[in-house]
Amino acid sequence: MLYALVVLGSVMLAEFTGASTNASAVARQILDKIPGDNDVNISYSQDQYIFHVKRTDGLTVLCMADESAGRRIPFAFLEDIHQRFVRTYGRAVFPAHSYGMNDEFSRVLSQQMEYYSSIPMLIG
Ligand SMILES: *[C@@H]1O[C@H](CO)[C@@H](O)[C@H](O)[C@H]1NC(C)=O
Ligand SMILES: *[C@@H]1O[C@H](CO)[C@@H](O)[C@H](O)[C@H]1NC(C)=O
């Protein structure tokens, strides 16, 4: 897992990049493509990567992973991040400021990306 972000509505709250790619630019294009504000679980492939997106109650968590990571582990990651975010900030995120949680929460993204990236090796 190489990149992740958390967006509320259209406000970027936190992101973390594990490698120098243009993931951030591609992620923004993908977010623009997802219509409405209903809940979604969706995956887009782009070059050799897959962008997985989970939106629940207006809070969107996205990650970029290798194709080899499959779907189950990235979505477990997204669900985990969603729950950690809600547990940490609850409704206190309103009003949301751009990158408002980045200092604290990019560290959580980084740690959990590392953890979920190691799962295939643990079971494989
Ligand atoms: C990101 O990089 C890939 C491969 O290097 C390229 O195909 C794609 O057009 C780039 N996307 C953006 C939004 O820059
Ligand atoms: C997204 O996935 C979660 C967890 O598997 C599920 O509870 C939820 O109903 C799904 N939402 C949609 C819109 O498919």
Automatic annotation (TrEMBL):
Keywords: Membrane, Signal. The keyword Transferase does not apply. It is found in: Endomembrane system. Residues 1-19 form the signal peptide. It comes from the Eukaryota. It is a single-pass type IV membrane protein. SMART domains: Longin (SM01270). Its main location: membrane. Residues 1-109 form the Longin domain. Pfam families: Longin. InterPro entries: Longin-like_dom_sf (IPR011012), Longin_dom (IPR010908), Synaptobrevin-like_transport (IPR051097). Belongs to the synaptobrevin family. PANTHER family: SNARE PROTEINS (PTHR21136), VESICLE-ASSOCIATED MEMBRANE PROTEIN 711-RELATED (PTHR21136:SF172). This is Longin domain-containing protein. It comes from Hibiscus sabdariffa.
